[in-house]
Recover the amino acids of this structure.
């Protein structure tokens, strides 16, 4: 039986001693993360384009899968819903109590708009989350 090693606990990051130092470090991390996201988005776009190319070209070979030297692919088919008539769909959900067909998520922008207009929504209460806005100093 293999013995698992316990994962070493990572020490919490050291923060600069001053709030100003923390703010500057936060801004630097924000910039570094933005650069990483930019590179990731470029890779993701390349990945999606190549995947679409393979999905388009593979059936022309009259096969459902193929392989290279290090990896292989197979075409799989998945069904996804597309509502063609939302009124009929919502009527069905209500009539059959088929609420499992819906995701439990509210639209935050729509809620904020109603709330700011003084309109209350039954069964819903707001909560306030704190965040920071960080920008480069002029």
């Amino acid at each position: 039986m293999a013995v698992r090693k316990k994962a070493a606990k990572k020490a919490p990051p050291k923060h600069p001693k001053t709030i100003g130092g923390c703010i500057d470090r936060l801004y630097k991390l924000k910039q570094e993360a933005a650069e990483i996201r930019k590179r990731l988005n470029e890779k993701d776009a390349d990945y999606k384009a190549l995947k679409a190319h393979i999905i388009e070209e593979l059936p022309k070979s009259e096969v459902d899968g193929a392989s290279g030297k290090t990896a292989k692919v197979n075409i799989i088919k998945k069904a996804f819903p597309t509502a063609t008539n939302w009124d009929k769909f919502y009527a069905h959900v209500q009539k059959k109590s088929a609420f499992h067909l819906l995701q439990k998520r509210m639209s935050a922008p729509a809620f904020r708009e109603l709330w700011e207009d003084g309109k209350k929504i039954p069964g819903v209460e707001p909560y306030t989350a704190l965040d920071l806005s960080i920008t480069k100093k002029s």
About this structure: The beta strands are 65-67, 72-74. The mean pLDDT is 90. Residues 19-57 form the longest helix (39 residues).
